[in-house]
Design brief:
- With 457 residues, this protein is an alpha/beta fold.
- The protein folds into 2 domains: 2-45 and 222-412, Rossmann fold (3-Layer(aba) Sandwich), CATH 3.40.50; 51-218, Glucose-6-phosphate isomerase like protein, domain 1 (Rossmann fold, 3-Layer(aba) Sandwich).
- It contains 16 helices and 14 strands.
- It has helices spanning 24-28, 31-46, 59-73, 86-98, 115-124, 142-166, 178-186, 206-215, 219-232, 242-257, 272-286, 316-321, 359-376, 391-412, 420-432, 439-447, and strands spanning 7-9, 14-15, 22-23, 78-82, 106-110, 130-135, 168-172, 189-192, 261-266, 288-290, 296-299, 302-307, 326-335, 381-388.
- The strands form 4 sheets. Strands 1-14-13-9-12 form a 5-stranded mixed β-sheet, sandwiched between helices. Strands 5-4-6-7-8 form a 5-stranded parallel β-sheet, with helices on both faces. A two-stranded parallel ribbon has the order 2-3.
- A hairpin with a 5-residue loop joins strand 10 (288-290) and strand 11 (296-299).
- The longest helix is centred in the middle third of the chain and has 25 residues, at 142-166.
- The termini are far apart.
Length: 457
């Protein structure tokens, strides 16, 4: 593979190679729309919305992060990350995919307020040797605020105000928000989440890099890979810009051939967290009621993450013979950096053909079989080949999808950097929890909770 970098193969997504693929002439005809999309990205960059594109080159932010890692690693053995959505998925993805075994620090992610999960974690960790990283861009995320209050009370009761302050690191907006105010008032250590970087685009900031580096991930290599992909995405020609090409093919699959479900199928267990991260990035960025000009469009392809070969035994039947509404992207790994070989089995003739077969080769054969079966069924697919799952390559993949998401937003004519629908849900939850000023949102729910013949008791 040239330059030992990831490679995109779109062959099985383009007609007439595949009967259900994207017509080649439609891809060629996208030049004007793509030109407008490039212009939109330029405008978003000038408006401060493309902050994620600055992160691979932000040495000051990296130095701040690594200095904090050095500080906490010298004092604590465990880290608990309190966050949800983009405040958790990126760090979890980097840590689970790349952390050495054993990790430099054990990192636990608490991304929900399920009382059983939270209670079990607090019951088994050693508070004396644990630091808590509280992450929220706004500083007011409801779930994170509740988690924080639980931890704050627990630590203050056990270690006093100073011991509590020593065991908390807050990652939030550099100036505004409740968490920033609390951190300043109570002397908590902080890391900066730049104003122009949204939560789901924040993995290459301290949000993702701090817990990953604490676990022992080479985050400098991650940023190097992201920077390499950023350079590849700097051209304004679709066919030579990996992110623009990936976004354009997904857009055309949706709009031209009704492939509205976008499947990311990773043939590596290490990349399962990446598919979870992708699902949030694609869904929350592109699922919008309104267009950029205010027209009601209810836009949004549906993302779905899968892992091979596991999901061949759950979802593949649907993909092959169910509705023709899916575009599948395979993440193919050349070197799994581990070898497990099936022994000779002459005394088990039924399985003798597997003797001497490496499990990595079997996994690759499984993927190739799925690709061919989809091709023969007229179901389009894309292949992204990774040399290995390492820090540099994962950095490339992260930036590829971040940039592709922004470009897809421009093609669809929606703002990929906001989430107005989610904000409405937050307001209702605030009202139900008794926050002043949000009572009217709670009243909406209560007014709909009356008697109904459609309730079974």
């Amino acid at each position: 593979m040239a330059d030992n970098r990831l490679m995109l193969d779109m062959t099985r997504a383009i007609a007439p190679k595949i009967s259900g693929g994207i017509p080649e002439d439609r891809l060629v005809a996208m030049s004007q729309a793509a030109s407008r999309a490039f212009q939109q990205l330029t405008q978003w960059r000038e408006d401060g919305k493309m902050g994620f594109s600055k992160l691979p080159n932000d040495k000051a932010l990296l130095d701040e992060t690594l200095a904090m890692v050095k500080d906490v690693r010298g004092q604590y053995r465990d880290m608990v990350v309190l966050g949800i959505g983009g405040s958790s998925l990126g760090g979890r993805m980097l840590t689970q995919a790349l952390a050495p075994k054993p990790a430099a620090m054990r990192v636990h992610f608490v991304d929900n307020v399920d009382p059983r999960t939270v209670g079990e974690l607090l019951g088994r960790i050693d508070l004396q040797g644990t630091v808590f990283n509280v992450i929220s861009k706004s500083g007011s995320t409801l779930e994170t605020a509740a988690q924080f209050l639980v931890i704050r009370d627990l630590l203050r009761g056990r270690f006093g105000k100073k011991g509590y302050a020593d065991r908390v690191v807050v990652t939030t907006d550099p100036e505004n928000g409740p968490l920033r105010a609390i951190a300043t008032r109570e002397g908590l250590r902080t890391l900066t989440l730049p104003k122009e970087v949204g939560g789901r685009f924040s993995v290459l900031s301290p949000v993702g890099l701090f817990p990953a580096a604490a676990a022992g991930v080479d985050v400098q290599a991650v940023l190097d890979g992201a920077r390499a992909m950023m350079d590849r995405c700097s051209t304004d020609t679709v066919l030579t810009n990996p992110a623009a090409l990936l976004a354009t093919l997904h857009y055309l699959a949706d709009r031209e051939v009704n492939r509205r479900i976008h499947v990311l199928w990773a043939y590596s267990d290490a990349l399962k967290p990446f598919t979870d991260w992708y699902a949030q990035l694609w869904a929350e960025s592109l699922g919008k009621r309104l267009s950029l000009n205010g027209t009601e469009i209810h836009n949004g392809p549906t993302p779905l993450g899968c892992v091979g070969a596991t999901d061949q035994h759950s979802l593949l039947q649907l993909f092959l013979e169910g509705p023709e509404d899916k575009l599948v992207t395979f993440l193919n790994v050349l070197d799994h950096q581990a070898h497990v070989e099936a022994p000779p089995a002459s005394d088990v003739p039924e399985f003798g053909f597997l003797g001497g077969v490496d499990l990595g080769a079997l996994l690759d054969a499984e993927r190739r079989g799925v690709e061919q079966a989809l091709l023969e069924a007229g179901r389009p697919s894309i292949r992204i080949t990774l040399p290995a799952v390492n820090a540099r390559v994962l950095g490339e993949l992260i930036y590829l999808y971040e940039h592709a998401t922004a470009f897809a937003g421009a093609l669809y004519g929606v703002d990929p950097f906001d989430q107005p629908g989610v904000e409405e849900c937050k307001k209702i939850a605030y009202g139900l929890m008794g926050r002043k000023g949000f009572e009217q949102f709670a009243d909406k729910v209560r007014s709909g909770d009356g008697n109904s013949r459609w309730k079974l008791t």
